[in-house]
Amino acid sequence: MVRLVLHYLILLGSGYVISTYGPNQRAQMTGDILLGGLFPIHFGISSKDENLAARPESTKCVRFNFRGFRWLQAMVFAIEEINNSSSLLPNITLGYRIFDTCNTVSKALEATLSFVAQNKIDSLNLDEFCNCTDHIPATIAVVGAAGSAVSTAVANLLSLFYIPQISYASSSRLLSNKNQYKSFMRTIPTDEHQATAMADVIEYFQWNWVIAVASDDDYGRPGIEKFEKEMEERDICIHLNELISQYFEDCEIKALVDRIENSTAKVIVVFASGPDIEPLIKEMVRRNITDRIWLASEAWASSSLIAKPEYLDVVEGTIGFVLKAGNIPGFREFLQQVQPKRGSHNEFVREFWEETFNCYLEDSPRLQESENGSDSFRPLCTSEEDITSVETPYLDHTHLRISYNVYVAVYSIAHALQDILSCTPGHGLFANNSCADIKKMEAWQVLKQLRHLNYTNSMGEKVHFDENADMEANYTIINWHRSAEDGSVAFREVGYYHMHARRGAKLLIDNTKMMWNAYSSEVPFSNCSEDCEPGTRKGIIDSMPTCCFECTECSDGEYSDHKDASICTKCPNNSWSSGNHTFCFLKEIEFLAWSEPFGIALAICAVLGVLLTAFVMGVFVRFRNTPIVKASNRELSYVLLLSLICCFSSSLIFIGEPQDWTCRLRQPAFGISFVLCISCILVKTNRVLLVFEAKIPTSIHRKWWGLNLQFLLVFLCTFVQVMICVVWLYNAPPSSYRNHDIDEIIFITCNEGSVMALGFLIGYTCLLAAICFFFAFKSRKLPENFTEAKFITFCMLIFFIVWISFIPAYFSTYGKFVSAVEAIAILASSYGMLACIFFNKVYIILFKPCRNTIEEVRCSTAAHAFRVAAKATLKHRTTVRKKSNSIGSTASTPSSSISLKTNSNDCDSASGRHRPRVSFGSGTVMLSLSFEESRRSSLM
């Protein structure tokens, strides 16, 4: 008994649900299988201040939507076409129950409850309590809704009962979440791709400063969120990010327009429906803000609410994304056959007729409202008006996009039902590969079949749903033009967006077809800062977005060859930036070349030095038996002259383009040559000094300073320098080096490998020169025929001055001048040695032969001997006098004087003897020295 009462109450409640839930106005036709439909026949509802003083009444839908009515007609047309088909669902009739959502969630849910309630009645199985054969069959699938916000609410409810829902216009990416929306499917692509497409368009036109506006619902917020991410990846900035709704107050709309008007961004990206964006457009039309470019999502890209001639001054040039248009054969004729008298199954036809012809039908509830003064007066309709004589969006069948999606959705359900009908047991989709019974079919079974749907429609297109129950499609890009015929809005196709093409080939736009606001064909500028010209880069401005920048000139050695460069590119090492930093040119390569005046001058000096040295050597060889040549140790002089030729020649290696072999050769060549020169001078000078300072030249001296030992000492001194060079070349060999540090020039120089090794090489040379200077200074008063001490002293002073000046000059110069400085130092010191040591002798040999005789040599030698003796005697007498003074003797010591007379009269050239006189006190001592040729030769 309790069970019976319970079922009776449920039956009464369900009956109340059937009669109460769902809008009163609907399109309905019975059939074996029932499909539900949700369409925005009106744009919205009238706002009422509900104070709950009385029972709330159902809100009234306002502003008839002709496009929404056409979408409804597409569903009716598809169902009638299927019912008349002999191949698809034969002997099965499809019925429908279609409601108006009024583009609001509340109305959509009100209609959806009727679908759910009927399914609940069928699940109760009440046949044993009542005769339910006449009740309306359960709705096995729903086509709709249009807006994403509405579809989200509907999907939450339908998913509880696994009733499949196929939307034709809801593109929100949130609806792809199958964990939350289990039974939701759609024939329109997700906004995931549309947001990417919009960002690609902005990047294509090189805009980086935009305004983003989105509807405050589940369509606008996710769409603009994805768009923001895409913009961040492209370094494009959004100046304003605003939400909008058709229910905003006027003050909110005006505040939003104020922000847009004050913004420097000229591009406005809108993710919203037509009703939501309409208040914004109206306010901008009122203010005549015409310098903006609109980027429209598919929800309003072809909306009849916005695409009006009176709005065209503001929205002309709009770029919109629309779905690919489809073809529905026979649909045009079906639209034209609409008549109030034949619309018994479609209650919306009557309102459509009244809105189209601006009249009222008899017995119309709107006629009573007009008589009560709540609406403007309209005449009565005759029901015979010609629908083709009036232009409305209803008959705009040239680009069927949403209508085609409705058509595909209905056919998808029909093919799923056909698969159930034709299923063979053992090959089904259900448990144990069983098939569903078409007569006892439930909604969840249809949902299962839809997920595995795969068929080819009448246009030859493959139709299937992906893993997210979405249907893939491509976008067509349209541009809003003003029609030249009547001034209306014309949607002109200007490009395409292919979702699955490779990156860089997805977007295709024909710029020649584009028309911007005010009939301009030039792309508008929408950047935070002016483009940076080539040669500059974008510089960051503090506290400003990255899209706002200042143009900074590229640094020297960097360039940018295109506008709006983020960074300047560094020129290659062998290049340098031009004056305006727009390109790089090859640097000029410089080295101490043979062809340049400086190189020619150095080469001439070096060759002249070699020739002069060779000339001196020739003179010495020619007059090798003369006293001066013999007295200057001719064997060492020959070696010295050969080493000077090497010194002059080594300077030539510093001229020309440095190669690895020349870099490794030039420093050792110059170092060894100079050490050889100085070693010869050192040995020769020191030998004569020791001989003359010896009191009695013995055979030991003559043996010790024999010719072989002299050459041995020269070899040993030179060998040390050779070992320094060998160690240097082994551990850190010099090499050719291109110096890029100097602007606009590449200096080819030698990298010495080790500056320390070069220091050892020059330091050792200077050490030998210092020792040589010491001995030369000490022997400066010896007979100049033997040692040329004064000239060697000057030679070494010149050497020190040159090489001490060389060190700071070497480290303060760069490039080719390094080689030039060292070559000059080599030439200067070489010329100094050649001139100081040999030019005086060559002068005497060639121009003063009278001084190049044995008598002259004897005279000079004797004079030096007597000078030494006189100094020794004077020193002895001085010592004796000091001793006498210290004893204190009263005896006075006679004064004495010493005088040395070596005048020319005392030199008897005929006898070959010199008799210098040395006077000691009151007497005179006559001394005589005679040097035989053999004796002199031994000294030499």
Q: Could you explain the architecture of this structure?
A:
The chain is rod-shaped, with a radius of gyration of 58 Å. 45% of the residues lie in helices and 15% in strands. Helix 7 packs across helix 8 (274-287), helix 15 (597-622) packs parallel to helix 24 (816-847) and helix 18 (660-693) packs parallel to helix 21 (755-778). It has an eight-stranded mixed beta sheet with strand order 10-9-11-12-13-16-17-18, sandwiched between helices. Strands 1-5-2-6-7-8 form a six-stranded mixed beta sheet, sandwiched between helices. A three-stranded mixed beta sheet has the order 25-27-26. It has 940 residues and is α/β, with parallel strands linked by helices. It has four domains: 21-45 and 59-189 and 329-362 and 380-464, Rossmann fold; 191-326 and 473-519, 3-Layer(aba) Sandwich (Rossmann fold); 536-586, no CATH class; 597-862, Rhopdopsin 7-helix transmembrane proteins, CATH 1.20.1070.10. It contains 26 helices and 32 strands. Strand 26 and strand 27 form a beta hairpin.
Question: How is this structure best summarized?
Answer:
With 940 residues, this protein is of the alpha/beta class. The chain has 4 domains: 21-45 and 59-189 and 329-362 and 380-464, Response regulator (Rossmann fold, 3-Layer(aba) Sandwich); 191-326 and 473-519, Rossmann fold; 536-586, no CATH class; 597-862, Rhodopsin 7-helix transmembrane proteins (Rhopdopsin 7-helix transmembrane proteins, Up-down Bundle), CATH 1.20.1070.
Radius of gyration: 58 Å
- Secondary structural class: alpha/beta
Largest sheet: 8 strands, mixed
CATH architectural label of the largest domain: 3-Layer(aba) Sandwich
Poorly predicted tracts of residues: 1-21, 889-940
Helical residues, percent: 40-55%
Label the overall shape. Answer: rod-shaped
The number of domains: 4
Gap between N and C termini: 157 Å
Name the quaternary structure: single chain
Question: What is the name of the CATH topology of the largest domain?
Answer: Rossmann fold
> For the record, what is the CATH homologous superfamily label of the largest domain?
Response regulator
- For the biggest β-sheet, the strand order reads 10-9-11-12-13-16-17-18
> Would you report the number of β strands?
32
